Amino acid sequence: MMDTAVLVSVLPEILLTVAGLVLMMVAAYAGDAAARIVSWLSVASLALAGATLACPAVHAGGPIFDGLYSADAFSAFAKALIFAAAAACILVAPRFFDGEGGLRAEYPILILFACVGMSMMVSAIDFLTLYVGLELNSLAAYVLASFMRKDVRSAEAGLKYFVLGALASGILLYGMSLLYGFAGTTQFAGVAVALKDGLGAGELFGLVFILSGLAFKISAVPFHMWTPDVYEGAPTPVTAFFASAPKVAALGLTTRVAIVALGTAGHSWQQIIIFMALASILLGAVAAINQPNIKRLLAYSSINNIGFALIGLAPGTAEGVAAVLSYLAIYVVMTIGSFVCVLQMRDKDGKPVESIASLAGLSQTRPGLAAAFAIFMFSLAGIPPLFGFWAKFLVFDAAVAEGMTGLAAIGIASSVIGAFYYLRIVKTIYFDAPAEGFAEARSPIDYGIMTLCAAVIVLGYLLNPLLGSASAAAAASLF
Fold this sequence. Notes:
Helix content: over 70%
Order of helices and strands: HHHHEEHHHHHHHHHHHHHHHHHH
Catalytic activity: a quinone + NADH + 5 H(+)(in) = a quinol + NAD(+) + 4 H(+)(out)
Pfam families: Proton_antipo_M
Mean pLDDT: 87
Number of helices: 22
Family: Belongs to the complex I subunit 2 family.
Strand order of the largest sheet: 1-2
Protein name: NADH-quinone oxidoreductase subunit N
Strand content: under 5%
Transmembrane segments: 6-30, 37-61, 73-93, 105-125, 161-184, 204-226, 269-290, 297-318, 324-343, 369-391, 403-423, 444-463
Distance between the termini: 31 Å
Number of strands: 2
């Protein structure tokens, strides 16, 4: 008979699974007429699942299910970010889909099931659990990318994501099978013991294949190719979701694999992580410069930001992991805020507008929206005293503390290149001749989320003691 404490440890996943199944039945019988009710109940489910993270059994329960799953502070921190980002992406969706034929009741349900998969990903301490969680998240994501069936771009985005995602899953599975063959176990702890005596050719190939598969999920170079097309083609609320919650889950998963499973082979995986970090930063900075579409630009921005986060992972220290977690927390706020601003870009007929040129003179027609855009762009660029600067400082500081001064120096120099395209948007908003104004939006929820995110970015340093202690405790649970 299963211990009650074990069930409590997986309470967030149980709650979201039950909520998803119940709401799916509601959607099946009531149809799209119940879409808004289903959305609000989904947000309530995410809030309830988030509240359970405060339970000691959930954030300090340790390994359960014979070493398949770990309920610890690291997974609890990541889940809190995932649930918050998912809830925001559900809340901002109705107004967007109203102009595209109405919100479908399946949208929030797919996000709930994706969250179950992501929860399993960040708690996985066995490659089997890792893969099940990854695929559960991916299957929901493929449908979300192609959610607007009559939109050619959305269908194309879903197809590209599915084909390339299947390829990445195959690469990941092959790497897992290689490590299993040489280590004799799929558990992270067992793999770490097997790698302790050095890497053979087969184990090295397994390590490379696993990190390659995970690089696709975090859209790190050279496995980033799907990101701009999928971000541009998918509905904007879905793009906001892809850029936030799955990024947290995938980078959290990569961090746990690197530290727990591959920790004893640190020198080998550190070289791969350093390459992915620098390549992602440079490509994300350079490729975004001439992008005319705001969603494509933010796609390259996400690649760029993943590169910075990987700088914190490269040292393989508790301080570095804490820096990665803090970076992710700040990145989620900046990303959600930026995409809520993009959702306000609509012409007089209410159709979404995505060109950067349409932002010209926005400060004269919509000063509040212009100020929010400027705050998020300056923060993404790492301009002090906004909170985005602190995120970059933490990862650079962790790298320097471990003697990786050259890595930090290249990262700092590259961040100057990346700042160019963020500042170009601010210049367009404040100094270019006004373009045709956007339609006035009367959405208290959108404005509320945008204002909250902007306030966190401006006043975030007041949260430093809380964020610092939470990320440090989460990182310590891996070591």
